[in-house]
């Protein structure tokens, strides 16, 4: 029997892509996924899928993580109905690939509001309850982009870099208080993320063969839920490049050449 059996896992951005797949996979382990996202129709569809495949009813809540009032109101309601949230997965986020000089301010502000401040707001709403209980696990979906930035992803990479910085500091703050913090740093995943991020379709066309499957990423996250780790980097070879970049950035930028400009 999985250690997740009977646990409650709250997932933001659970209406599709990685979030929906993760919700299904934890339900298969006997956990109760709580689904949150902005689109009620999509949340209902994910709820029905989980019910059909696992016979587990996954409650859902309409949540806009970029709106602090929404986070406070919805999390308050969730905690009244589910007072013991064992795991929080901060998965909600989006990116838009474009040159910084051409980026409308609403796009820049939107990415930071969702990817960074929204993640912090959700964590802040739940962390005190975990600390009071002396147990819990926060999983933040970051990105390899947070370790090595490339053209047309300067703002998106900045948000994910912020997620990594926040997560690393928070991990140290709660290390001896029973709460684990894990960051997930994937490369490109084959989801509808790119419908908005890569409207030209060029990036997807160039990297399609190396895209990660949501099921593979979800499998790794579920294992981290059962046995917490500091971070997960996918695929391994991309993380090698990110690690080398920290040591010799100029050389890696030179060698990267055209591969960094696939957007």
UniProtKB/TrEMBL annotation:
<dbReference type="GO" id="GO:0016616">
    <property type="term" value="F:oxidoreductase activity, acting on the CH-OH group of donors, NAD or NADP as acceptor"/>
</dbReference>
<keyword id="KW-0560">Oxidoreductase</keyword>
<dbReference type="Pfam" id="PF00106">
    <property type="entry name" value="adh_short"/>
</dbReference>
<dbReference type="InterPro" id="IPR020904">
    <property type="entry name" value="Sc_DH/Rdtase_CS"/>
</dbReference>
<comment type="similarity">
    <text>Belongs to the short-chain dehydrogenases/reductases (SDR) family.</text>
</comment>
<dbReference type="InterPro" id="IPR036291">
    <property type="entry name" value="NAD(P)-bd_dom_sf"/>
</dbReference>
<dbReference type="InterPro" id="IPR002347">
    <property type="entry name" value="SDR_fam"/>
</dbReference>
<protein>
    <submittedName>
        <fullName>Oxidoreductase</fullName>
    </submittedName>
</protein>
<dbReference type="GO" id="GO:0016020">
    <property type="term" value="C:membrane"/>
</dbReference>
């Amino acid at each position: 029997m999985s250690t997740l059996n009977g646990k409650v896992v709250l997932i933001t951005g659970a209406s599709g892509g990685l979030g929906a797949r993760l919700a299904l996979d934890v339900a298969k382990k006997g956990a109760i996924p709580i689904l949150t996202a902005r689109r009620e129709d999509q949340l209902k569809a994910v709820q029905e899928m989980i019910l059909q495949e696992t016979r587990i009813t996954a409650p859902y809540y309409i949540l806009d993580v970029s709106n602090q009032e929404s986070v406070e109101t919805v999390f308050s309601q969730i905690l009244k109905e589910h007072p013991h949230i064992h795991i929080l997965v901060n998965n909600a986020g989006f990116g838009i690939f474009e040159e910084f000089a051409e980026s409308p301010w609403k796009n820049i502000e939107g990415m930071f509001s969702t990817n960074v401040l929204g993640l912090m707001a959700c964590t802040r709403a739940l962390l005190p309850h975990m600390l009071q209980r002396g147990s819990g696990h926060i999983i933040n979906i970051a990105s390899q982009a947070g370790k090595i930035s490339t053209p047309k992803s300067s703002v998106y990479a900045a948000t994910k870099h912020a997620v990594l910085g926040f997560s690393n500091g928070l991990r140290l703050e709660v290390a001896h208080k029973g709460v684990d913090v894990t960051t997930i740093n994937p490369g490109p995943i084959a989801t509808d993320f790119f419908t908005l991020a890569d409207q030209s379709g060029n990036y997807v066309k160039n990297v399609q063969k190396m895209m990660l499957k949501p099921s593979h990423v979800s499998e790794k996250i579920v294992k981290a839920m059962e046995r917490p780790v500091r971070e997960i980097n996918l695929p391994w070879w991309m993380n090698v490049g990110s690690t080398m970049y920290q040591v010799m950035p100029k050389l890696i930028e030179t060698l990267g050449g055209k591969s960094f400009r696939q957007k």
